[in-house]
Specification:
Blueprint lengths: L4 E5 L4 H10 L4 E6 L5 E2 L5 H11 L2 E6 L14 H22 L3 E10 L12 H18 L7 E5 L22 H13 L6 E2 L3
Parallel strand pairs: 1-2, 1-4, 2-3, 4-5, 5-6, 6-7
Bound molecules: NADP nicotinamide-adenine-dinucleotide phosphate (NAP).
């Protein structure tokens, strides 16, 4: 397999750390996070995203596992809190694509993170459900707009094995193993599909 230059945004998080360790043996990984990684970038700032891509230059694939949202009681959810998901998980990831498309190599790919909450809401997560839905709509639309063979997909797991703190909020869901999550991302990055919402299980 060709060695790829892969940007992982959210590389210091639960999903990101696992994906870095799974992919770094065979590929050049650029680890990006708000406060850590090889490069610091805040996805809520278009200026910060632009600086990220100027610094990295051309690349083959971008994986985003960065999707901040408000998680908490409905009674505390207001305009200000809701914007965490809008500026973060939704516009942050959309701007990674809108800006990154000018730097990505032909036939490159974008893989964004959503989650089962799009279709299966749980208490405390309305902000993530809404942001996921917007990102998934964007993925389907961007797939028919992106030029030069550039592909885009989203990975949409339910709660994952390495996040036991969230298990009580997902009653009845069998946690997705980290291996299944990894292979969902592999399907997007190394496969030929585009506009897909990949549901690892
Ligand atoms: N964990 C689960 O069970 C699960 C299941 C389905 C979907 N999801 C979704 O998957 C995504 C990642 O989950 P996770 O559990 O891996 O989260 P996590 O452990 O909290 O990690 C989030 C990562 O994103 C980075 N990040 C956060 N805000 C950022 C910003 N404004 N700019 C740049 N980077 C930022 C963090 O870096 P800093 O620490 O430097 O901010 C960190 O590297 C979330 O959107 C979540 O909704 C999670």
């Amino acid at each position: 397999m060709k060695k790829m230059k892969i940007i992982i945004v959210g590389a210091t998080g639960t999903m990101g750390k696992y994906l870095v360790s799974a992919l770094e043996k065979d590929h050049e990984i650029i680890r990006v996070a708000d406060k850590g990684g090889d490069i610091k970038a805040d996805i809520t700032s278009t200026e910060s995203i632009e600086n990220l891509f100027k610094h990295v230059g051309a690349f083959d694939a971008l994986i985003s596992t960065a999707g901040p949202t408000y998680v908490g009681p409905w009674k505390n959810l207001n305009d200000k809190e809701f914007r965490k998901g809008i500026e973060g998980k939704m516009m942050g990831q959309i701007n990674l694509v809108l800006i990154g498309q000018h730097y990505i190599n032909p036939k490159g790919s974008f893989t964004l993170i959503t989650g089962a909450l799009t279709d299966e809401p749980q208490l405390n997560f309305a902000n993530a459900s809404a942001a996921n839905g917007a990102v998934e709509g964007f993925v389907r639309a961007a797939a028919i707009e992106l030029q030069n063979g550039i592909r885009i997909n989203a990975v949409s797991p339910t709660v994952i094995e390495n996040s036991p703190q969230y298990f009580p909020f997902f009653p009845g869901d069998i946690p997705v193993t980290m291996k299944a999550l990894e292979f969902g991302f592999r399907k997007s990055v190394f496969g030929a599909n585009t506009g897909q919402i990949i549901k690892p299980n």
